[in-house]
Amino acid sequence: MKVRLFAVVAMLAMTAGCGLFGGGDDQKSAGSAPVAQSVPSDSPAPEQSSPEPAETTPSPTPPTATPTRKPTTRAATPPEDVNNFEVSACSTKKGTAVAKTKVKAALKTAAGKTYWTHEAPQLKLNYPLVKAIAWHESGWQTNVFNCDGGQGLMQLMPDTVNMINGRFGVSYNVSNYQENATAGANYLAWLTRYMSQKAFDQDKVFDLSPGKCRTHSSWCLLNITIAAYQAGPDAVLQNLKTKKLPNPAYVDSVRSLMADCFCDKY
After folding, report:
1. Can you give the C-alpha Rg of the chain in angstroms?
2. For the chain, which residues make up each domain, given as ranges?
3. pLDDT tens, residue by residue, 163-189
4. Residues 6+ apart with CB under 8 A from 104
């Protein structure tokens, strides 16, 4: 019996041992299966790396240069271009026009002369005034003859030339562009003194600087001299009480040309 019991116990022990070892192998194999399943082939890793629009989206474009081009809009021709000059539709041209570079030199020479050499040598013109009137009158065209009698660069009337020649003891030939420029400047010098005497009772100080005028239409020596060049001194002095310019548009145009003229490019 004991032998049988020992045999049975031995067999049980062997069976249990085989079950333990075999069970250990099964546990290992069973345990390894979840490990393999814990790393599936369709893991979300590619989904995490794929959403990268920042790399494929182009970088923001810099601000356009449109705002910096606004000055070109401001530089466009204004509704009323102050560089336009007045030449009558019935005017004619005789001969060949002198180059504007030569005209500019003639105007500068004329503006620098002293015309009241004895009575008012302190009276000085300025080039911006002379060049602006010349541009407004003829566009610096030396060969323009107007149907109203205006001649050449400064559009001088025959009666005006005769008066200046007689008053100053000269003999300007306004068919010559240089003498035309000088005669026109001489007339401006005469107007400056005459208007100063009549409008301001002043015969010592003749200030034609723009700074002496509050506006282009105010009653100041520069403005009334410009007005008298076109309208005549009597037409201006008739408004002495009202102090209103008879031709404010003309004066405004000349004043604007003094500051900024297309002719300045020559």
Report:
1. 50
2. 100-140+177-265
3. 999 999 999 999 999 999 999 999 999
4. 131, 140, 263, 266
